């Protein structure tokens, strides 16, 4: 095979989320978000860590963007805090919050970095939670649309790439099924599917509005995609894979790409009495939006193994590893359908996430075949314990190895016909890892920050210089 490389206009990037990096949680008129309230509950996050300061990107964004430019980053994917822009979720815009994003985008553009904006990365204004239950009410659809419409109009000449929703499958599952994320509700299956339907409708309304304002702009959603493998060729396990895909993957991606739910999955949920209510107008809206999306956004970290789960088998409430103590993650599943055992052929991270570079190529090929859409890899990265030496070096060869293997598979996917526009690592700087605190590090830039505080000084890791070379060579430096 010839030396692999990406197309000339490929967007090498990195990513972040507002709550995880900005801090300044009550400064300059910002309203509270659901996460600002949720983390106050004891035991919800590692050592009760919060994003009140995070890594202080709000005050240090110029320093961070300058580092991005030094690396040669082509695109920076970041989210906007809805509550920083609209403290009450609706009504008057907070001019100071708007100025922050104006300045951030201007800084990116000054260095030739393409801004890629995520409208919603899990932090809904707390005011909307208190007013009507947030995503539980269809009222949220109009408020989200107004918020999105404002941003489209305001930044239509500056931002070309937009992501409507980040990891809808994760924030709704953790919010209404496992109680790990706000609003912290457990096993509310019927409400879970109805909440998802509201999110789909909000996404659809935003896509349609976007195309009226920016017909040449690019928009899609980012989905946390874990491609699945059947445990073996036992038909029971092969069927468990099909059911897993319909319920855990295609339930979301089919709506984004086709505007409809997978038929067999909907039938199954309807029999259980938990399927969402879908009107004819809803269906028309979803189909219309699906015809207008430009790409499938993929957040890829790991693959999943599927095995038949007997009726008296494991439930979906297995303990999740949020401490970095390897081997503490528990197998979960849906009784009578599937369970997800560990893959004996693959290594795992300290947080028990399967390391499967070829799974990224698998994901791209499956999306290409099933949806025939371009792909943006909006997240991919390794969370690990990094050590800062006395002379301020961070030797993260393990991260370099992880990313190199994944990028190589991505380049092979391009050779095999997948249309991939961008690759955004998670993340550029270290940041707050939601439930895992500050000990789980993802960045190219080390931030002196722990659960108890720190100087917040930035230090370039070995992977920073490595990715700089990858970008400069358009991937050819990877062997």
UniProtKB/TrEMBL annotation:
Q: Which domain of life is it from?
A: Bacteria
> A Gene Ontology molecular-function term?
beta-glucosidase activity
Keywords of this entry = Glycosidase, Hydrolase
Keyword Aminoacyl-tRNA synthetase part of the UniProt annotation: no
What PROSITE patterns does UniProt report for this protein, alphabetically?
GLYCOSYL_HYDROL_F1_1 (PS00572), GLYCOSYL_HYDROL_F1_2 (PS00653)
Q: Which Pfam families match?
A: Glyco_hydro_1
Q: Which GO terms describe its cellular component?
A: cytosol
Q: Which SUPFAM superfamilies match?
A: (Trans)glycosidases
The active site consists of: 379
* UniProt similarity note: Belongs to the glycosyl hydrolase 1 family.
* PANTHER family according to UniProt: ARYL-PHOSPHO-BETA-D-GLUCOSIDASE BGLC, GLYCOSYL HYDROLASE
Output this protein's name. Glycoside hydrolase family 1 protein
Native organism is Vagococcus allomyrinae
What high-level taxonomic lineage is stated for the organism? Answer: Bacteria, Bacillati, Bacillota, Bacilli, Lactobacillales
């Amino acid at each position: 095979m010839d030396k692999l490389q990406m197309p000339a206009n490929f967007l090498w990037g990195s990513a972040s989320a507002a709550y995880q990096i900005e801090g300044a949680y009550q400064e300059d008129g910002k309203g509270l978000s659901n996460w600002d309230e949720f983390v106050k509950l004891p035991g919800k996050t590692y050592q009760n860590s919060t994003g009140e300061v995070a890594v202080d990107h709000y005050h240090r964004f110029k320093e961070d963007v300058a580092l991005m430019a030094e690396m040669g980053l082509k695109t920076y994917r970041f989210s906007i805090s809805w509550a920083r822009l609209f403290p009450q979720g609706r009504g008057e815009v907070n001019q100071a919050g708007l100025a922050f994003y104006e300045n951030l985008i201007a800084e990116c553009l000054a260095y030739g970095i393409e801004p890629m904006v995520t409208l919603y990365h899990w932090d809904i204004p707390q005011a909307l939670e208190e007013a009507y239950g947030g995503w539980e009410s269809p009222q949220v659809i109009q408020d989200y649309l107004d918020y999105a419409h404002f941003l489209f109009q305001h930044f239509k000449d500056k931002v070309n790439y937009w992501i409507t929703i980040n990891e809808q499958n994760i924030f709704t599952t953790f919010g209404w099924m496992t109680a790990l994320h706000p609003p912290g509700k457990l096993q509310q299956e019927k409400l879970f599917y109805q909440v998802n339907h509201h999110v789909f409708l909000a996404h659809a309304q935003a896509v349609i509005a976007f195309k009226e304002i920016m017909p040449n702009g690019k928009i899609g959603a980012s989905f946390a995609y874990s491609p699945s493998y059947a445990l073996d060729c036992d038909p029971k396990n092969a069927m468990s894979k099909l059911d897993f895909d319909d319920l855990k993957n295609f339930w979301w991606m089919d709506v984004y790409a086709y505007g409809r739910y997978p038929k067999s999955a909907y039938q199954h949920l309807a029999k259980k009495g938990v399927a969402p209510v879908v009107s004819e107008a809803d269906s028309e809206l979803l189909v219309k939006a699906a015809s207008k999306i430009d790409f499938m956004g993929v957040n890829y970290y790991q693959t999943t193994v599927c095995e038949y789960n007997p009726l008296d088998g494991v439930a979906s409430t297995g303990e999740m590893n949020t401490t970095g103590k390897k081997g503490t993650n528990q197998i979960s599943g849906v009784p009578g359908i599937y369970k997800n055992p560990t893959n004996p052929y693959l290594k795992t991270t300290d947080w028990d996430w399967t390391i499967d570079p070829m799974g990224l190529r698998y994901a791209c090929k499956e999306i290409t075949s099933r949806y025939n859409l371009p792909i943006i890899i909006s997240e991919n990265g390794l969370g690990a314990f990094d050590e800062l030496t006395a002379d301020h070096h961070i030797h993260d060869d393990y991260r370099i190895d992880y990313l190199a293997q994944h990028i190589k598979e991505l380049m092979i996917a391009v050779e095999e016909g997948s249309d991939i526009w961008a690759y955004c690592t998670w993340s550029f700087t270290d940041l707050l890892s939601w439930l895992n605190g500050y000990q789980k590090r993802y960045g190219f830039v080390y931030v002196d920050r722990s659960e108890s505080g720190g100087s917040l000084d930035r230090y370039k890791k070995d992977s920073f210089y490595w990715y700089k070379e990858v970008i400069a060579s358009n991937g050819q430096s990877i062997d």
